Amino acid sequence: MKISHILKEYEDIGLEKENIIKTISGLDAADEQQAKILDRIYRFLNQDTVGNNINKAFIGPMADEYMPDKSKEQHRIELTKIISTLDSSYSAMGKFLDKLEKGGVVNIEELSKPVNSFNAVFGGDPVAISAFNNLKTYGVGQNQKGPGEFALAMLSNKIRLAKGEGDTEIDGVGKVEVKAAVGKSGAGGRLGHGGAQQAAQMATLQKFGEKIPNTINRITSSAGGSIGIKAFVDSLNAELPANTTDNKQLRVNIATQLIKPNFGTYADPIAKLFANEDANAINEMYVRQNFEWYKNRDGFDAYLLISFTRQKTGMGRTGDDIVNLRKTGQITDFGISMIPTKSGPREQFAQITMSAAGV
Predict the structure, then answer these.
(1) How confident is the model at residue 85 (pLDDT cuts 50, 70, 90)?
(2) What is the DSSP string of 217-277?
(3) I want to staple 349 with a disulfide (CB 3.0 to 4.6 A). Which of 27, 68, 106, 190 is the partner?
(4) CA 171, CA 227: separation in Å to the nearest integer?
């Protein structure tokens, strides 16, 4: 019998307790230690009676979460399956259930730090970490929710999913854009979507063909017809050095026309730095402005990175925060293209991927 059927049968108080818990968990209640674990799970699931027990059991973590009743029921069933099958001692399981009943297992203060481990975020609770990992892909695709969002909301009453395609809301933080990596590579998301097309950007660059023919040839002869921001700056430095006022103004003009279609007025501080030849400074300013543009456009207060691959989190509230994560080695290179490939206009937005560096 499916667990969903078993859960519905909890309304029948006359069902034999031992058969119910054995069916849900697949464990043998004959062993004394297992029997205690099963009894604890059973009592947790039956804190309330007649059909409302599952709802009330998760009233803390599920409070104020914007989900249809049918979806809530499915989430409770999924969490129930995880609770009943997690590899844990009776004591550890009991502590986990206690915290869920009191409001959740997520330490918001630790989650809000620039970088932290799952171990710190979940208070060193291996059961909570296991539950989060097992729930990471649950709900993905529903109302454009990404990996980890439903899991966070289910495991803390201080975290709520917004309606529709909105941000996740975290008490004490505000509206949060959540980006999670679940694959083996750990690749994260980019700070934006859409972006100017390759053809349009190359048409802009061709207007300066007489001044930077080698740069243009380098781009058109490359695989995919693209060039990264640092390589682009290096090419300008060789062909159009910032050693005269005219060259400086031309460099700023080129950068303005290439970046403004993506960032509007947020492009200005980036373009101004092209009057100099420091590729690293330009790259960092690009990321700062990219983040501030993205934050303003989507109206969030913080950006939460979750790496299930690396078992750690990162949070940034400003462009400087994101740059600092890179400086401390917690995220990899931003992978920004000044001219994108034909199929990848999003390459013009910084990619945020957490590294394998320890916390």
Answers:
(1) confident
(2) HHHHTSGGG-EEHHHHHHHHHHHS-S-SHHHHHHHHHHHHHHHHHHHGGGGHHHHHHTTS-
(3) 190
(4) 41
The string of DSSP codes covering 316-332 is ESSHHHHHHHHHTTSB-
Cα separation values, 205 from 66, 195, 208, Å:
47, 16, 6
Q: What is the mean pLDDT of residues 77-95?
A: 70
**Which secondary-structure segment (H or E) carries 160?**
strand 159-161
Asked which of 31-40, 44-53, 340-349 is least confident by mean pLDDT, the reply is 44-53
Q: Which residues contact 349 (CB under 8 A, 6 or more apart)?
A: 190, 191, 192, 193, 195, 262, 290, 294, 336
**What is the DSSP secondary structure assignment for residue 213, as one 8-state letter?**
H
Angle (nearest 5°) at CA 262 between 256 and 268: 35
Residues 30-65: b if buried by 16+ CB within 10 A, e if exposed: eeeebbbbbebbbebbbeeeeeebbeebbebbbeeb
Rounded to the nearest angstrom, the gap between the alpha carbon of residue 133 and the centroid of all alpha carbons in its chain is 14
In degrees, to the nearest 5, what angle opens at C-alpha 208 toward C-alphas 204 and 212?
120
- On whether the pTM is more than 0.90, the answer is no
213 Cβ contact list (under 8 Å, min separation 6): 239
pLDDT > 60? residue 156? yes
Tokens, residue 284: 């960092």
Share of the chain above pLDDT 90, in %: 58
* pLDDT recorded at residue 115: 97
Burial code (b: 16+ CB inside 10 Å, e: under 16) for 204-240 equals: bbeebeebbeebbebbeeeeebbbbbbbbbbbbbeeb
Select from 79, 55, 69 the least CA-distant residue to 152.
79
Residue written as tokens 């690009």?
A: 286
